[in-house]
Design a protein that fits this description.
The chain is mostly helical. The chain contains four helices and no strands.
């Protein structure tokens, strides 16, 4: 009986962890979309902080490639620079 109780605790703990992970992914996606939408209106120091945090969070082995990809994406979607590509 005690083994069943532990199995229940472990199973429910894993379910809770999975739900928290999904919530975190959802919040990250929503905040990420919001940041992209308002990027051009953010002060440059905030843009820099967000950019650097994104690079740190990704933990990519190829940091330079990640920086280039992020910069290109933001440049292509930035209101002031995207107009020049139309």
């Amino acid at each position: 009986m005690e083994q069943l109780a532990w199995l229940w605790v472990i199973k429910n703990s894993n379910v809770k962890d999975n739900l928290m992970d999904r919530d975190r992914e959802w919040v990250s996606r929503m905040l990420g979309e919001a940041v992209i939408d308002v990027w051009s209106g953010l002060p440059q120091d905030i843009q820099q902080k967000l950019f650097e945090q994104a690079v740190l969070t990704a933990g990519s082995a190829d940091e330079e490639d990640l920086r280039e990809r992020l910069a290109k994406f933001l440049h292509d979607h930035h209101q002031r620079t995207a107009r020049h590509h139309v």
